[in-house]
Design a protein that fits this description.
There is one protein chain. 62% of the residues lie in helices and 7% in strands. The protein has helices spanning 5-26, 30-44, 50-54, 58-74, 79-83, 86-112, 116-125, 131-141, 145-178, 182-212, 221-239, 244-256, 264-287, 291-320, 328-336, 342-357, 366-391, 409-420, 432-440, 453-458, 474-488, 501-506, 511-515, 525-533, 549-556, and strands at 401-405, 425-429, 445-447, 464-469, 493-495, 537-542, 561-566, 572-574, 588-593. The longest helix has 34 residues, at 145-178. Residues 501-509, 598-606 and 611-622 have low confidence and may be disordered.
Length: 622
């Protein structure tokens, strides 16, 4: 049955949204479900035919979408971040790139007997992992903190680096194909590099200056940068054939490393764009995959994939680890985890298009090769990484640390107390002054929206399994509650009470949010902030036979507000209105105490007074 063009386009959008939602629910990399949805809609069910639907616009659409992906990825490549993440990450980027590229190229050429041009591109594209596939895997596997950071930063950095390498290889291939002699081909390649680096750097500098000096209004920052980038991409292609991808990659890297250029909001803009454009792109690309082309590759393709996973990756890891303090268990785990991601899929489809247009008839085989590499690595490694981490004893123990929404003075005092107890703690805030003060106090802090896509790849939650909402931002508090209830689970999200009775009367509080209330009793953020401004301080007290809980109560005369308890086994629990503990000997109390003699102060009247404890302490969940 034929359907209208409008219905077909709308169906792609609905299917991409459904795949994104399902990936969020089952905590899987979205690219796997997007590819599966495209294959089901295209070769299996036969209702999506991209060539017939888009006609001559298919190639320009894919080309512009890939330019957006590479530009967004390059905006995350900051030189300072490369320097600050250890010898292993610095070694792994160049060593892993060279080893994987050479191994993939030779395996594809010798085993599958594909043309050298296709083999070289396959080798270059196969080095890219990417944060979009690494982050969901790490959240489900929860390896040791050191290993998680290595894999996370490898994915973030290798994304634009791998794309740049693939673009350079592609430029070399087409420039060689356009020249009859070596010098002519070398001249074309040199022109492509010159145009790409020159226009990219100039465009990045111009756009960065416009943003830094506020030459564009705030509401045009995202749309203006995106439009300018696409214009630069098209102009670069007109000056030097197919130099646009190199240009936008250089432009993004230049802007990322300029001082005082607000690129974070541009990166966040990509979140909505990815659902509408990039998600649809992968459904369209997957719908073009032909099972016959995969079948023709036969067992040779399985052998190539096995070599990349079982030879190239371990060799890269063991070579890069020379001179580091990683043990053999760490190296084996890192050797197994390297799922390929979005950049690999997008770039392979675009380059296959372009090579076929230039007369390379066998270039179409590049797409099924890369797509099978993505499917194999994401599926196999997602299913096996957790058991392997447990077997090698590199899995992180149950997460008992705390993510604190808010980096205000109250939250910072609590974080410092938890840090002294060796409890993993991370603050997050959108207020730069709060973030700056946290960093001055040597606290781990994330600057930005904790429920954003940027946070999903950059917010390190290793060892973190609970959320404390100590923030005055009601809208952000609600969003974070829903987000982390799904992520950490019920009973791991705690928020302060909302004593604004008028607000409650106007707006019914959602049941999920209401169930998280009661942190530190019935005290509100406003009351906590007021007490801290009066000089109250967070204090840690160890109970013993000589100083019991009754002594603690008498000392502060019910002025102290109990915040956390740590039992004799080291289990830490926040005090809530529904679960007030009964402290015993050898317990540690974290409480908010007044600065002066308690006799001179009135009782705060909010929060669980230190003498009101009654119920038994519940043991921490595994």
């Amino acid at each position: 049955m034929s359907v209208s063009t409008v219905l077909s386009l709308a169906s792609i959008g609905v299917l991409s949204l459904a795949c994104q939602w399902l990936a969020w629910r089952v905590r899987m990399p979205a690219i796997l479900l997007l590819l599966a949805g495209g294959i089901a809609a295209g070769p299996i069910l036969g209702w999506l035919h991209p060539e017939a639907l888009f006609g001559d616009l298919l190639f320009p659409f894919v080309s512009l979408a890939v330019a957006i992906i590479l530009f967004e990825g390059s905006l995350t490549l900051r030189y300072a971040e490369i320097k600050g993440h250890g010898k292993m990450v610095r070694n792994l980027i160049p060593v892993g790139s060279v080893v994987t590229c050479l191994t993939g190229t030779l395996a594809a050429r010798w085993i599958l007997n594909v043309p050298w041009e296709v083999a070289l591109l396959f080798g270059a594209i196969s080095i890219v992992t990417g944060p979009t596939v690494i982050a969901p895997l790490l959240r489900s596997v929860r390896p040791d903190a050191r290993l998680a950071r290595i894999l996370r930063w490898e994915g973030i950095i290798i994304d634009p680096v791998g794309a740049l390498l693939a673009v350079l290889v592609f430029e070399g291939i087409i420039s060689w194909g356009q020249g009859n002699v070596f010098s002519h081909s070398l001249g074309i390649f040199g022109k492509t590099l010159l145009v790409g680096f020159t226009i990219g750097a100039l465009a990045g500098w111009m756009n960065g200056v416009a943003l830094r000096k506020h030459l564009l209004p705030q509401y045009l920052h995202n749309a203006g940068t995106l439009t300018f980038m696409l214009g630069v991409y098209a102009l670069s292609n007109e000056i030097a054939h197919e130099s646009g991808l190199l240009t936008v990659t250089v432009m993004g890297i230049w802007m990322a490393n300029m001082k005082q250029v607000p690129v974070d909001s541009i990166i966040e803009f990509k979140e909505s764009l990815s659902v509408l454009l990039i998600s649809a792109l992968f459904i369209i690309l997957a719908a073009r995959v032909e099972f016959a082309a995969i079948a023709e590759l036969g067992w040779g393709l399985a052998a190539v994939l096995g070599i990349l996973m079982l030879v190239a990756r371990p060799v890269s890891i063991f070579l890069a680890a020379i001179g580091t303090n990683l043990n053999w268990r760490d190296k084996l785990f890192l050797s197994w985890v390297a799922p390929r991601g979005i950049v690999a899929a997008a770039v392979s489809a675009l380059f296959a298009f372009q090579l076929q247009n230039l007369g390379y008839e066998n270039a179409g085989i590049l797409v099924p090769m890369v797509f099978m590499l993505i499917i194999a690595t994401v599926t196999i490694q997602s299913l096996t990484a957790r058991p392997i981490a447990t077997l090698l004893n590199v899995a992180e123990p149950p997460s008992y640390g705390y993510l604190i929404l808010g980096a205000n003075p109250v939250a910072r005092q609590i974080a410092l107390a938890l840090q002294k107890l060796e409890v993993p703690v991370t603050l997050t805030d959108t207020n730069w002054e709060n973030v700056r003060q946290s960093r001055m106090e040597n606290l781990t802090v994330y600057f930005g929206n904790p429920v954003s896509e940027h946070a999903s790849t950059h917010l390190d939650l290793t060892g973190i399994g609970n959320l404390l909402i100590i923030s005055p931002y009601k809208h952000m508090n609600s969003l974070a509650t829903y987000h982390f209830l799904d992520w950490f689970g019920k009973g791991s999200v705690y928020s302060l009470s909302d004593n604004d009775q008028d607000q409650r009367a106007r707006h019914q509080t959602a049941e999920k949010v209401q169930q998280t209330r009661g942190l530190f009793g019935d005290i509100s953020y406003a009351k906590l902030a007021s007490l801290v401004s009066q000089g109250y301080r967070v204090k840690t007290t160890h109970l013993s036979e000589s100083f019991t809980y009754e002594d603690f109560v008498r000392q502060h005369e019910r002025q102290a507000i109990l915040l956390f308890t740590v039992d004799s086994k080291g289990h830490i629990e926040p005090v809530t209105s529904g679960d007030i503990p009964e402290p015993e000997e050898e317990w540690t109390l974290v409480s908010l105490v007044p600065p002066a003699a308690p006799k001179e102060r009135k009782e705060p009247g909010n929060g669980p007074p230190a003498d009101k404890v009654s119920s038994k302490h519940k043991e921490k969940k595994a």
